[in-house]
Amino acid sequence: MIFGSDSDQGKILPGLLEFSKEHPDISLVIQYASADNTPDKVRRLALKWYGDPDMGSGNYHQREPIAFISGAGMSNALTGAVKGYARMDDLVIGVSIGDSVTQGLSAVLSTCEKPPRNPVLTVPLNGTYAAANIAKRFMEGEGRYTKVVVAMDESNVLIGLEFRNEVGNVLSHYDLPYLVLPSSKISADDLVVTPFSAGKVDLSSLLFIDTKLQMGKGVQIAVKDSLPLVELEAEDRSDDAFAEQDVLEYLTYFKGNFKATGYVTAGQPVNAMIVAAQMMRSKDVLERVEKEKKEKAKKLGCHPGFVVKEGNIIIGGEQR
Questions:
Q1: CATH number of the domain at 142-281, please?
Q2: Would strands 91-97 and 121-123 be described as parallel, antiparallel, or unpaired?
Q3: DSSP β-ladder status, 31-32 and 219-224
Q4: 8 Å CB contact between 108 and 229
Q5: Where are the domains of the chain?
Q6: Which residues contact 271 (CB under 8 A, 6 or more apart)?
Q7: What phi, psi does 143 have (nearest 5°)?
Q8: What local confidence, expressed as pLDDT, does residue 154 receive?
Q9: How high is the mean pLDDT of the chain?
Q10: Which of 96, 100, 170, 221 is the most buried (most CB within 10 A)?
Q11: What is the pLDDT of residues 194-209, one digit of tens each?
C-alpha cells in the first residue's frame, strides 16, 4: 500500500489495525510517497511491486495479477499515478482521505471518477479495512467468481430499470455471464454489481448487500447512474444551494460503514464490468478492453495538435 502523507496516519490506521487483528496471518506493508512531492519514490515503489514493462518477458509480464492499494487526500494524484503502472488485470483500489475543507469530496471525485476503461475501485472515505478486505478476496479469488450478480433494488428507490438494463447490456456485450437478482436473493459469496442513484440518499440496500457479503467472500461494485450529479441549468432551481445539496448527497454514499464495497465511475457501467472481469480473472474480456485502450492511445498518439492564431485554427500548417 502507498499513502500520500504520514499526516493521514490517524485516518488510515484504524481500519488497518482492525483488519490485521482479524487476519493475523497477513502482514500489511505500508509506504508513504507523494505523486506531487516525491514522484521518484512513487515510481520506484510501483516498479518494485508491479514490475517494469521494459524488461520484456520479465517480472511485469509473467507475474500473477495483484491488488494495489493507494490513497491520499485532496486531489489524490497518487492513485492516478499508481494506476499508470498497473496491468489491465491488476486491481487498483483507491482510498479517499478526508480533509477539513471539502470533507473528502475532492479526494472522492478525483479517485473514483476515472475515464471509461480505466477504473479505480474506490472504497469509502478512510476505508482502509474495506481496501484490505477486497484486496484479500481478489488475491484469493481465482476461480471463485463464475458470474456477476446485478442487484435489483426491490423498493426501486435506488435505481430505475433503464440504467440496470444498461449495466446488463455492457456485461452482455463483453460476454461476461450475469444474472439479475433482488437483494434478498444474493448470497454471501457473490460478486455483485449494484447500480444506484444519488437522487435519494438511501444506503439501506447497499449496506444490506455489504453486510451479507461480509459473512462470506463476496464483493460489491457500486456504480451510480448516468443522471447529472449537478443540474446547473434546471429551471426550477432559484439559487446555488441545490448544487451543494446534490453533491453532499453523493458524498454520503462514501461515508457508509462498508467493508466489502467499492465504487466506480458514475454513469460508466463499463468500469464496473472491468472490475468484475478483474475479480473473475476473465482474460478474454480484459484483452478486449486492452485492445480498445490501445486503439484510442494510437489515435491520440498520432494527433498532430493544433494552433489557434488570430481567431483561426491551424492543423498541420493548414488553416481549418
A1: 3.40.50
A2: parallel
A3: unpaired
A4: no
A5: 1-140, 142-281
A6: 114, 116, 117, 118, 119, 223, 264, 265
A7: 85, -5
A8: 65
A9: 90
A10: 96
A11: 998 876 556 888 999 9
